[in-house]
Amino acid sequence: MLQTHFGKRQPVVKRSEGTSWSAKDRAVAAIAVSYTEVCAVLDEIADDNSYKTDVPNEARDLVTTLEELETGFMIVFWRRVLNGF
Asked: Is 15 helix (H, G, I), strand (E, B) or coil?
């Protein structure tokens, strides 16, 4: 589902692997660059009745969290902090 929304050159959103600062930078960069696409995919999952009920609910919760001002601020903040590593 993610592949239909993402361009070929967009970073892939995945769990931060490892504890290095550069791994965390890649994870934050991926969500910052692909924010709109991630929200669109989560909205699709939230509206899809073919999943177990907990999956759409979790997708809705994630969209709600991503749309909060604090989350947007933290994405920008950590992107700037981690950009140096």
From this structure: coil
CB 51 within 8 A of CB 45: yes
H-only helix segments in 15-68: 21-33, 35-47, 54-66
Q: Minimal CA–CA distance to 59: which of 47, 72, 75?
A: 47
Convert the pLDDT of each residue in 51-67 to its tens digit.
888 999 999 999 999 99
Question: If phi over 0 gives left and psi between -120 and 50 gives alpha, with beta otherwise, what is residue 62?
Answer: alpha
| Residue range 32-45, pLDDT digits in tens | 988 888 899 999 99
Q: In degrees rounded to 5, what are phi and psi of residue 23? A: -65, -40
Residue in the structure block whose two tokens are 């140096």: 84
**Calpha distance 31→12 (Å, rounded):** 8
